[in-house]
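dumping this here before i forget
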Amino acid sequence: MHELVSDLEIDMANFRIPIDSLVYRVSSRLGIIDPRIDKYYGENSPADLKIQSFVKRIAPEEPYILDEPLWSTGRMKRDGGHCFPTGPECKGCIFENVCQKKFLDVEPETLGMLASKTSVKRKRTPTVEEKRVADRQMKFAEFVEELKRHGVTGKEYRERVMQWQNEHKN
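structure:
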């Protein structure tokens, strides 16, 4: 994509970790949150704010970097996880050496997550800027498909792509 769209940039500095029961459980056991105090009931709830704050402190430039490790650790054993609802298998977990191993005998999410939040994924509403970028990307993809349908390749393809980019900068 970068060769086709040289000015394509995706700013992930404001990425928010999506919170589900897996992330909540792992965050509780790591000691990032306390499910007895830090309740989760959606975006900007106490648990959400603490988890987002923790992620920003650990990786301020790349907050997305902890998303996959947190949720994948909470998956079931057959899916490669370690931090099960009860009786986690800490040996071999990527967080084994730093985990505070809290709430091992109880499902943390039953203490601090609303039941409706554990099975329903919240869809974040895109910002105006994100909508604008998505719209531009869709238009560009349509333009590229049109070039392909007309058999445009090589130098002419690159020139037309660069021309489109210059015409649609804003």
